[in-house]
Amino acid sequence: MELLWELAGWAGAVAILSAYLAVSMGWLKAGKGFQTANLFGSVAFIINGTLHGAWPSVVTNVAWFLISAVALVRMREVEAPAQSVEAHVQYPGVPDSTGQMAIVEALTEALPVVSVPTAADARLAA
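The structure corresponding to this sequence follows.
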């Protein structure tokens, strides 16, 4: 029976690390599959850590489990949009600046366009 709990711990490690690798490399979107792998991995770590008396690991994985469970529940509650207006590609490791760009565009569109005379304009006027 002890071998079963050890295998559970290793399976949890594989599930969590594989999901993290797949999302980090861009092979998997950080969605339901990622959260489900984290959920099952954390349960396996909780079982293994409890049997070994590794309480810091158990507490960490209970938090990991709760985060994944809440994320999955919230994903079920949110309905997918009917159609996407524009495809947005987010590369792993690159911060998403979409919100910042929207603010810049809103501010620049609100400003009046002012024409600054150049030396060429002065020559044309003369």
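The radius of gyration is 26 Å.
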